[in-house]
Model the fold of this input.
Amino acid sequence: MTLSFARENRITSWHFIIAFAALAIGLLLGPLQVWEHTGIKELNFYPYLRAIGIQSYYQGLTLHGVLNALVFTIFFITGFLTFAATRSLQKPLTIPALSWTALIVMVIGLLMAAVPILLNEATVLFTFYPPLKANPFFYIGLTLVVVGSWITGWSLFATYLAWRKENPGVQTPLIALGSLITMALWQLCTLGVAVEMLTMLIPWSLGLIPGLDPLLARTFFWFTGHPLVYFWLLPAYVSWYGMVPKMAGGKLFSEPLARLAFWLFLLISTPLGFHHQYTDPGIPAIWKYVHAGLTFAVFFPSLLTAFNVIASLEIGGRARGGTGLFGWIFRLPWNEPSFATQTLAMIIFAFGGISGLINASYNLNLVTHNTVWVPGHFHMTVGTASALTFMALMYWMLPMLTGKALRWPKLALAQGWTWFIGMALMSSPLHILGLRYEIPRRTMIGALPYFNPEWSPFLIASALGGTILLISSILFFTVMIGTLVSKEKLVKAVEMPVAEAYQPGLAPKWLDSWRPWLAGAVTLVVIGYGPMLVQLIAQSQWIVPGPAGRLW
Ligand code: HAS
Ligand code: CU
Done:
């Protein structure tokens, strides 16, 4: 009996339409920021933006951060995981109404959050740190986007439970397991931001409580804020483990190790948010060291991934006739847009990971924190490992969802390479400027009274990189829209690539049982956050009023 996934395709397609619409707008602010940073007056376009409603740098930066880092990612990921999990289980959604409801709740939330930003009433950036204050609809809207994403997860868990009942004793396919673990991690880690929104930011912005405790708010935010990065990363890992080895003509070198990596992310990702708060007073150093140690621990599953994915690519390269120590690299399908672009994303991510480890080092972080080093880091991680992988997935998913052949595949290939070159050129100077000159992040650098001409070569290189990224973005949307309007049908149906295990059936049972890993994750959260949260709540002073009066 051939299964129909037409409904799942429609749900995924709507998620993708909204995700890439958000990206299209959010991306545009990027080049404006790097051009302004050069300090070259002619490249500062902010005064002209007033004509289209962008009143301030911080409104633009909030649009850039919220649309790219929150809206694009959450809509894309919930759509992709719905697609990947149901295809991998070979089981359509058990309660599709739940997934539709999820999407509707997310869209309502998006509209509620977007309007205040566009009205310049929510210039609090994507981390919305109080005592900066926004229009309450901004907070309520983002809360609904997260609630909607939870409902997507519940729909996937219901489908999975039904699958488990119908397939007793059968091991969960890897792509489904990675997708479901990502959703489980998301449900656990978003409890922090849910508490922050419901008990602090929403009542405070509505004027129901006179003030709040910024340290407590930040702590709840970073309870979510770091595991959020793995919610962004793990869908890319689902593809890098579960699909890319197949595209390379290889096999997944170690399937058990891949499973272990996903479980370790669930286990360790949440209780380490203090590495974003090393300079926050009021958190004893000992707890910062505990979180630093756990951050180094969560580095490990990514190292496993690097080893396993490269070994899997090597199997593919050698199967294509590659020889010698590195000859296999050149035999990989570099002419295939989705494969090449994802592999380029991995290479950039390796450097983003290294700068993440430097961030995680308590003492080094005191040098890099709040400097442009950090945006340098996260444009290589979420801006490339995640965002570029998500774009690359579209090079086979769009044909699969539309039945149309990918238009201009060579342009798609050019898009991957221009993103790779543009991002390397945009982000590397930011690392140097942050480390050597401690230039502050989230700042109109070109307008700084202490602008130092020594910075200019690096800022101009970064602006050149941002310009190349703009060209890459235009290439991406050209290929997408070209494919959507093209009449050329696929000659052969596109299937989701599923990598086989190099040695099948090796994964032990404990790599397919949820209870111990979930129990471990919750226990680590209680240990890693419990005592400090009790103390911070007990000593909290809800007296910081934020800006006086109504902002709207
Ligand atoms: Fe981070 C700040 C530490 C990963 C995103 N991070 C941020 C912020 C964002 C972000 C958005 O400890 C700023 C938040 C804000 O606005 O304040 N980060 C880490 C660490 C990791 C890490 C230790 N970050 C990510 C990922 C992100 C992301 C992933 C998004 C997707 N980060 C920090 C810290 C801060 C921080 C501090 C706070 C800084 C401050 O002071 O504010 C690790 O998880 C990284 C592990 C990654 C690796 C790389 C493995 C390489 C792989 C690819 C190999 C394959 C290749 C292909 C090379 C170890 C898997 C080869 C190809 C062939 C052809 C052979
Ligand atoms: Cu972090």
